[in-house]
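Protein entry
_____________
===
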Amino acid sequence: MATKGAGKKSTSGKSNSKRKTSKKKNPKIKLDTNGVLILTAIISLVCIGLMFVALNQQNRVINKGVQQVAKTIESAKNIEVKPIAVPPKNQETKKVEVAKPVESTKKVEPKVEPKVEQTKTVAKKVEPVKTASVPNQKVAVVSNTSSKSTSNSTSNSNSTSVPPAIIFPQFKIPDAVGRPKLVVVLDDACHSLDKLKKYTALPMKLAIAILPGLPNSRASGQIIRAASNKEAMLHQPMQSMNLKLSPGPCSIQPDMNSFEIAELVKKNLDEVGPVKGLNNHEGSLITSNVIKIGTVLDVCMERGLFFLDSFTTAESKASQAALERDFKIVKRNVFLDDIVTREEILKQFYRGIDIANKNGSVIMIGHIDKSSEIIPELLSEMYPILVQKGYVFAFPSELL
């Protein structure tokens, strides 16, 4: 019995050892398939979101650049060309032909990389139109511009044209009554030949009076006679009532007799060369003496010349002396440049225009050196408008 029991015990022990050795070990880390999928999905969504943010930021930058280019193009379209104040050029070598201005335009092709460059303009004079406003404005400017924008990716070009900006000189010039004659006389020629040439280069009829007895007197006469539409005169110096003022060389003095006066005037006429007439330089003391000014008129009659009374004094007896000789003379109406500013000279021009419309003609006197920076430019600007409105420039000799 004991032996049998012992045998059973050993058998059970053996079977237990087999069970222990045949038992499988489970892994310590368990993988959750659903969790992995969810985590993968979350990472994918985050990546997609980051991609959308990046694309959105890139689109904003592109849109901003496009808007900037559009604004630049729009600003280029709205460019306004303002008048350029150009200082007076040396008119010795330049002829001013305002009556027939030439208009031209240039095309400039700026590249757009990525900004649009401002287009350049070329300004030329054109004939002004009828306008009335502030008189202190410069010559007309017309500008036409066109720009071409070139893309880096294509060879096609699109042109954008800017509307022309037109500004005309503003003058208060009324329409002419009939065909009034405007006579402009410039005194004191011979001090500066360069300044004289500013006037001889102008296209309208002008009379220019030459002072005698000076280094450039003869040369001034030659320049005036060589120019077109210019009439040469002798600007005969005479003593004024203010004895402290010297009228210059070759002047008529109050102590001269009639013979001396006549010989002096003839000598001065021969010096400056062939002229159409003469007027007095200063000379209020001489012109107020009917005998002395009468002697000057006698020389004019002998030489076939006209006499223009500069009318430096209301006591002038030139008209009386002319009446006694049955000799017709002409008389100054307006001094243009007693005050040497553009505004004041323009006022005197307007005054002369009013006189011309009332009387049919006017004689206006200016001075070569005194107003060389104003009168030539002003005449050049006003000339086409005056002609358009019916005024005629004339010589003093054409009033007789």
